[in-house]
Amino acid sequence: MQPVRGTRDLIGETFRRQHGVIEVARHVSNLYGMEEWATPIFEATSVFARSLGETSDVVSKEMYTFEDRGGDSLTLRPEGTAGVCRALVSNGLTQGNLPRKVFYAGPMFRYERPQKGRFRQFHQIGAEILGTAEPLADAEVIAMGWQIIQQLGIDDGVVLEINTLGDSMSRDAYRAALVAYFRQHAASLSADSQARLEKNPMRILDSKDEGDRRLVAAAPTIDAYLTPHAKEFFDKVLGYLEQFGVPYRRNPRIVRGLDYYSHTAFEFVTDRLGAQGTVMGGGRYEGLVQEMGGPPTPAVGWAAGVERLAELLPESPEATRPVAVIPVGLAEEPAALAMTQMLRQAGIPCEIAYKGNLKRRMERANRINAQAAIIIGEAEVAEGMYIVRNLTDGSQDRVDSAALLPALAAAGVEDAMLEQMIENIEAGFEGDDETA
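Below the sequence we write its predicted structure tokens.
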């Protein structure tokens, strides 16, 4: 049996890389006052079909949609924003609870050709600020994304590209100009772009077809069609980004691939991933919460592919190095188990081999890359002593309980873990005598 095409197992270094990305993002999101939400991995198909747009590639080509035994049409989520907006409405959070600042992380599903950094089951992190129309929210959520990229250590060569899609009046005027332009070249457009010409011509700007790209290069930009309000809004966003210290460059061709965006649209891009150059993207959207049955609710957010971010990491996060607790024989197992529990309650990862003589247990300690071993033999039990072996350099000491913690620290166990261990030991002495 093999994993389904476009999926993979996350094991060892691969898992650590992706988990590291999510944990950094989770930490930074907390600094920005975000609360983490988790929505179901499948929703009613209408949640995505209505919100993403019937002409989008996601809806027309990529969604995993199926009918359940009750006859309901369900879809594995292809992105996170629609589910967050549905949750806002479903949980009655649209009245008196805004704005809400939401962070999420989890798997998404799209049926597309697997390629480097792109899978049919992939993972995203995302952030949404729901219920505010202020341009400061746009700049703050972008600044949060930039801080995540910086703290991951992947900012070298990553650039923020930003554009405005304007307000509804701006888009109506711009749409008419695009239709007039592309109708002159309709015969040269790809089949997908020909279908979009009448329904959503702005989507043509996002086409990956080479022939379309040549036509797009000469297409009009939105700047000439911006209303004063839309221009002022965009200028404020750029001004706030400068105050946040976020570098950017203007790209008038960014439109984002989904129907619900307005005003700000942006992408963090890099040339270090080949053709798949976008690592984070998003923008402002106005009608999505209303599409879910809620009131008109302005919002702004972004999503980022965890696989792509993980691929850019300069080095893999190190696996946790535990402490190995090794009883020399069966008679010493009770003392070894007591030591194991004390370490774990202190937050120190440790492992005890289930069976084997001293040699085999030491081999196991080396296989799991333990940083230290606490060896307990008959004499150690009788005398209240421990043998602490540093498995990095091979040195070892025979110490009493008072010197155990310094010996572990010398072997590389983190000071914070040891401090917690001391607190637990002292609390034991102050509490139950038997435990102490």
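The domain at 323-430 is CATH 3.40.50.800 (Rossmann fold).
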